[in-house]
Specification:
The protein is α+β, with helices and mostly antiparallel strands and 443 residues long. It folds into two domains: 265 residues, Creatine Amidinohydrolase, CATH 3.90.230.10; 66 residues, Arc Repressor Mutant, subunit A (Orthogonal Bundle). The protein has ten helices and 19 strands. The strands form five sheets. Strands 1, 2, 9, 10, 11, 12, 18 and 19 form an eight-stranded antiparallel sheet that branches. Strands 3-5-6 form a three-stranded antiparallel sheet. Strands 4-17-13 form a three-stranded antiparallel sheet, with no helix packed on it. Strand 18 and strand 19 form a beta hairpin. The longest helix has 24 residues. It starts with a strand and ends in a 7-residue tail after the last strand.
Length: 443
């Protein structure tokens, strides 16, 4: 999820223009149904036909065994529906990309005290790796299956159904979505729309062959949110745009670490992104970072923390610290490099610092109870309220926004006719290493 930079900070920004096997035979029965014998031939003759008949009967009885129960699946289904708890029954979920610290922080990799601190965070890491593996499996399925001609509603529902199946919580019972599920609604922002668009009920928008679509969604387990995004384009003319933003995100991930200064990370991201250009329909465009969109820290059950990671150089001397969780995300554009709010709102979240307001509209009161019991401060969208059976809630929802209890996140757009791209990873600033928790073979 994009963090929008406050307009008052823009003056401090610097932008440079530019298979199965058969069961083994029982050890006491030969393959032809006769008993295996350790005695000599004279013993065999003494037993006679009765022994043979007994042997045959035993063999037949053996064959009537009930079939073994099927083992749990060892591979994911298509679409993804096998819970990760079955694929990883010991809860040993895959690690993300672990990157050792360098220079004055190199000691942390082997320091016993830091290793002890890491071991104390076992539940934290298990939850994050659980969510990250769900994100990887779902997005890799999505990348293979999303095609032009699909509606955005079909795409969003496909992603979200898969996430809920993999974490084992459908979110339809009260409080279930707070245990695990969607950590951020599926953003499907197209072309000049950079962020915060997901279809509301009745949306008929269809993905087109020449569209550039940002796919941004979060997965949480016990409030630990993995926020990650990628961009899809089906026309190769956009390749440089996507490559620029992916490279810039990777540079931000590379620069991140304990004591790294946020403004300097922004400068490194900017330098990489602005080294690219893209030609579209005979016109060459410099690729610009969208300077009023930032990365951000992630807190438990809250997608936006207190620190922002700019994607252009700034004077921000704030440092990354041990224990921080960051979403490093970058946005590139062929447009102006600045976005503004425009269009129908779909994304919402209850504020962590929501005031205690005496609500006078009954629909607002009842809706707030639904939000508290099902989402807390996790972001949600209008489709999630529809899914819970809520009706005629817009008046109450708008009242909660106006009262400062719920924050709305309108779509963020650049100049019409421009194209934007986004890539994002979640990183854990652990005591011993930096873990790019959402890293996968795809990006």
């Amino acid at each position: 999820m994009a963090a929008q930079a406050p307009s008052g900070e823009l003056s401090n920004l610097s932008v440079t223009e530019s298979e199965g096997s058969k069961p083994k035979p029982n050890s006491s029965v030969a393959t032809n149904g006769n008993l295996n014998r350790d005695s000599d031939d004279s013993d065999e003759d003494a037993e006679g036909p009765a022994a043979a008949a007994a042997a045959t009967g035993a063999a037949k009885k053996k064959k009537k065994r009930k079939p073994k129960k099927k083992k749990s699946p060892v591979q994911q289904s298509d679409p993804p529906r096998v819970p990760l708890s079955q694929l990883f029954p010991n809860k040993q979920y895959p690690k993300g990309e672990e990157v050792e610290y360098v220079n004055e922080n190199r000691y942390r990799t082997t320091d016993e005290e830091k290793r002890h601190l890491d071991n104390l965070n076992s539940d934290f890491l298990t939850d994050y790796r659980h969510g990250a593996e769900a994100h990887r499996q779902v997005r890799q399925w999505a990348q293979k299956n999303i095609k032009p001609g699909q509606t955005l509603t079909e795409i969003a529902n496909g992603i979200e159904d898969a996430v809920r199946a993999l974490v084992g919580h459908q979110g339809l019972e009260e409080g279930d979505a707070l245990i695990a599920g969607m950590g951020f609604p599926t953003g499907l922002s197209i072309n000049h729309c950079a962020a915060h668009y997901t279809p509301n009920a009745g949306d008929k928008m269809v993905l087109q062959q020449d569209d550039v679509m940002k796919v941004d969604f979060g997965v949480h387990v016990n409030g630990r949110i993995v926020d990650s995004a990628f961009t899809l384009a089906f026309n190769p003319r956009y390749d440089n745009l996507l490559e620029a933003v992916k490279a810039a995100t990777n540079e931000g991930v590379k620069q991140a670490g304990i004591d790294a200064r946020l403004g300097e990370i922004g400068g490194a991201i900017q330098e990489v992104m602005e080294s690219y250009e893209v030609e579209i329909d005979g016109t060459t465009y410099p690729i610009k970072p969208i300077k009023n969109l930032n990365g951000h820290t992630i807190l438990p059950y809250s997608i936006h923390g207190t620190k922002s990671v700019p994607i252009v150089k700034t004077n921000d001397q704030t440092k990354m610290e041990e224990g921080d969780v960051f979403a490093i995300e970058t946005f590139g554009t062929t447009g102006k490099g600045v976005v503004h709010e425009e269009g129908q709102v779909s994304h919402y979240a209850k504020r962590r610092d929501a005031p205690n307001v005496d609500l006078r509209i009954s629909s607002a009161k009842s809706l707030l109870k639904v939000i508290d019991k099902n989402f807390g401060t996790l972001p949600f969208c209008r489709r999630y309220l529809d899914r819970l059976g809520q009706e005629k809630y817009l008046l109450g929802l708008n009242n909660l926004v106006q009262s400062g209890i719920v924050e709305d996140y309108p779509p963020l757009v650049d100049r019409k006719g421009s194209y934007t791209a986004q890539f994002e990873h979640t990183i854990l600033i652990r005591p011993t290493v930096k873990e790019v928790i959402s890293r996968g073979d795809d990006y």
